[in-house]
Design goal:
9 helices, single chain, alpha/beta
Length: 233
């Protein structure tokens, strides 16, 4: 089976409970849509688990980009205000400790993150952390080749420029980044942390249930479309 979840934000215990609940096996695949770190209590445990399991694939999220920027600047050098604004302190302290305790593992984890893709196509689905900048499609027909015109930042920072616009023809994009409760607010819909399905264009599914904010962890089985929900432990 192929599963998809997103925005775990250091909620490692809830992730372990999810794997237990879906009876995750060695021949299954879990696709995480980025943002495994920050906010929650166990960011390094998340990164280490992903690094150690070949059948768990993560895409790049904006929080991982902030972590790599911190590492590339020599760990404790430079301005970390943007990362701090995005609740990165817990990860910064944890990665600093890992660097001292096990520098080889720290380097291996960082190198592993650098290999993460911005998006993944599993027809008929496009998986991406934040979607993409669909505003670029205003004057051109959106097609799968259009993804090549996106910058890495547009896959990890997009919000209303994605979920309020028409997406790529014949594909459904599954994304995180913007909590589904926030998407529903943008559309004046009843607030919920359940997955959000674009009823206008029928080309998007938002799955960030804001687990790190006391919401829920949403997981989709891409073969059966069965949804599994984990609440904060």
């Amino acid at each position: 089976m192929i599963y998809c979840c997103s925005d775990l934000h250091g909620c490692f215990d809830e992730f372990m409970e999810l794997l237990r609940k879906i009876n995750f096996r060695d021949n299954d695949i879990m696709c995480i849509l980025g943002d495994n770190i920050d906010r929650g209590p166990k960011p390094v445990e998340m990164l280490k688990y992903i690094y150690e399991h070949d059948n768990i694939i993560s895409l790049m999220g904006n929080h991982e980009e902030l972590l790599l920027d911190y590492i590339d600047r020599g760990f404790d050098g430079g301005d970390t205000s943007l990362w701090d604004k995005n609740h990165g302190e817990v990860t910064r302290l944890a990665i600093d400790k890992l660097r001292k305790d096990d520098p080889v593992l720290c380097r291996n984890i960082a190198d592993n993150i650098r290999t993460w893709d911005s998006y993944l196509v599993l027809e008929p689905y496009i998986l991406s952390h934040a979607g993409y900048n669909a505003m670029k499609f205003k004057n051109v027909p959106p097609s799968i080749e259009s993804l090549n015109k996106m910058t890495p930042s547009e896959f990890i920072w997009s919000r209303e420029d994605f979920f309020k616009c028409k997406g790529i023809n014949d594909y459904i994009t599954i994304f995180g980044h913007t909590p589904t409760r926030s998407i529903r607010i943008a559309f004046n819909q009843k607030q919920s942390d359940d997955i959000w399905v674009c009823t206008k264009y029928k080309d998007k599914i938002g799955i960030d249930g804001a687990i790190a904010y006391g919401g829920q962890l949403n997981c989709i089985n891409l073969e059966t479309m069965e949804i599994t929900i984990i609440y904060p432990l």
